[in-house]
Amino acid sequence: MSYLRLGRLPHTSPVSRWSLRDPSNVVSACISVLVLVTIVNVIFTLHTVSVLNELLPQTPHVHSYVGDDHPSQLPLELTSVGLELESGEGHFSLYDDDDWGTLFPSDGFVALGPNNRTFLVSLYHQFHCLDIIRVGYVVNRTHAAEHIQHCLRYLRQALLCNADTTLEVDIPQISPDDGKLYHTANGVGSVHRCRDWTVLRQYMLEHPSTPFE
Fold this sequence. Notes:
alpha+beta, two-stranded antiparallel sheet, 10% strand, elongated, Oxidase ustYa, membrane, transmembrane helix, transmembrane
C-alpha cells in the first residue's frame, strides 16, 4: 500500500502571496489610496463649486449694444399691481383722438446703451396698433387695410404671449337672434395681475429716443 505525503501537490507551482513585506506592494497600495482620495476630492470640489454658483449672485453681462448684443427686455424692474377693469364709457371712443393720444408719453422708442441705440418698447407698439385699427375704421383711409392686418396679427401674438388667466364672471344672456341662452362676459370688475405701467411711463419720459437730424 502506498501513501501520499501531505504537503505540496505534485506537479504544481507554489502559490504566490501578496505581502506588505514586499516594498513594491507597499508603493502600489499607497498610490491606489492617493488616486482614490484625489478622485473623491475632485468630486467634492466640483459639487461645492456648483452649490456656491447657485448661492452667489451671478455677475451680470454688460451689453455692448452692438449688433445682437443687447437685452431682450427693457432693463427696468416693474412691481406687480392690480387693475380692476371698468366699462370705460366716456373715454377712448372711436372719435376721441385726444384720449388715444394720452397713451403715448413719447413716440414709444427709448434710447439705451453708451451710444443711445434706439428700441421700440412692445407695449407702445401694441397701443399703436390699437390706434391704427381705430383710425382705419373711422376714416377708412386708403391703403389702411394692410397696416390693420399687420396690427391684428401682431396683437394676436402679444395676447398669446401674455396668456392672461384672470377669471371673468359669466353673465348668461338670451340672444335676440335665436332666443337661446349663451355664455357672455364683459370683464368689468375683474382684477388682473399687471406690471406697474406708471413706472414704465415715467421711464419713457426720462429716456426719450434721439431724433434724426
